[in-house]
Amino acid sequence: MSNARPTSRRIVAVVPAYNEVEAIGRVVDEIRAADPRLDVVVVDDASPDDTARVARAHGATVLSLPFNVGIGGAVQTGFRYALAHGYDLAVRLDGDGQHDAREIPKLLEPVERGDADFVIGSRFVEARGSYRPPFARRMGIRLFARVVSVLGGQRVTDTTSGFVALDRIGIDLFAREYPHDYPEVEATLVALKSGLRLAHVQVETRERESGASSITFVRSVYYIVKVMLALLVSSLRRYPRLQGTSR
Q: What value, to the nearest 5°, has the Cα angle with vertex 119 and ends 116 and 121?
């Protein structure tokens, strides 16, 4: 039996970007090389540099936001575009070059088999993973995974990954319900409480190609406290249980 992807399925790669002029061209090229059938949509979050121009020059569709809305708003803009334009599947990865686009087929596989609606590219499925974050961030990641696992009723290994794949059900959910401030952790809980079937695949994270992370030790502690409060609020909300034709 052939494992080839049905040609009728339309797939989009959503790439949020802010001041990534040095990396975005290579990111777009890597996505197109990983699977030429993917449409690449770069959501430029009002970058003052030439991120939008470079992304467009490398063949991406660019959605230029009129003002900076943050990572959550940029990602949701991409999902709204995917929903409005009838895409069946979506992959989200960051514009800084940390995610290896060659791993996109690995993320899409459980969705295409109909085994999952939402796939997280996790850095912690296997103990041999190479990702070694600073102490405060590592503790935060572990704490979030445990809390979301308890609140969502399913084991989660990585709630801060920005490398995910979604089917039409997931696109529809995140086009309507997507947190805007440090969104990945809360979005995972939203997905589980909405009934999306979650899967994890092991991925590796590369060093940033340009720029530097803005998350210092102090900000890591602040981030942990803020996200825990957001998870508490989300756990008290009622979300409609989604049903899809893939079930």
A: 155
Question: Could you tell me the two tokens for 66?
Answer: 């009129």
What pTM was computed for the model? 0.84
Using DSSP's 3-state secondary structure scheme, residue 39 falls into: strand
Provide the pLDDT for residue 245.
41
Q: Is 43 helix (H, G, I), strand (E, B) or coil?
A: strand
- Residue 106 is which amino acid? K
H-run or E-run covering 48: none
Would you place residue 129 in the very low, low, confident or very high pLDDT band (cuts 50, 70, 90)?
low
- Write the DSSP string, 41-99: EEEE-S-SSSHHHHHHHTT-EEEE-SS--HHHHHHHHHHHHHHHTT-SEEEE--TTS-B
Reported as type and span, the H/E element at residue 160 is: none
Asked whether 123 and 191 are in contact (CB, 8 A), the reply is no
Q: Indicate if the pLDDT at residue 3 is higher than 70.
A: no
